[in-house]
Amino acid sequence: MTPEVLYEALSKYAAALGMELNNDRSFVLDILSGLLRNEGRYGYRSCPCRLATGNRTEDLDIICPCAFRNDDVREYGSCYCGLYVSNDWNEGRIARQIVPERRKHKEILQ
C-alpha cells in the first residue's frame, strides 16, 4: 500500500466519524509513510510520533487510530500527531495548540 492509497481510505474513514485529515497534505503523507513503515517493522501501524516497543499488546494504545484520538480532537481539535482534526481546526476557527501526551510512560529500570 502507498501513502496516497492510505490517504484516500483514511479520508473516507475520518469523514464517516465527523473528522477530517489535516489539510496539510504533505504533512499527512509524511505521517502515513511513518505508519506504513511501522507496519513493516512491527506488523501493525503504530503512531510514528511515539516510541513503539514492537510488542503489539504493549502498544495497543498507540496503534492508529490511537486510543487518545477522540479525546484529543474533542478537546484540542487535533490528535497528538496532527493527523486527525476537526473541521474547525482545519478552517482556523479554533487555536492550534500543542496536544499533550496522554500516554502513561512506564519507568525503565536499569
Taken in chain order, the helices and strands follow as HEHHHEH
Main sheet, how many strands, which sense, barrel? 2 strands, antiparallel
Number of strands: 2
Overall morphology: globular
Helix count, DSSP H or I runs of 4 or more residues: 5
Helix content: 40-55%
Strand order of the largest sheet: 1-2
Through-space gap between termini: 39 Å
Mean pLDDT: 94
Report the β-strand fraction as a percent range: under 5%
Outline:
The protein is mostly helical.
Task: Write a structural description.
With 110 residues, the protein is mainly alpha-helical. It has 5 helices and 2 strands. A two-stranded antiparallel sheet has the order 1-2. Helix 1 packs across helix 2 (25-42). It is globular and about 40 Å long. The termini are far apart. The mean pLDDT is 94.
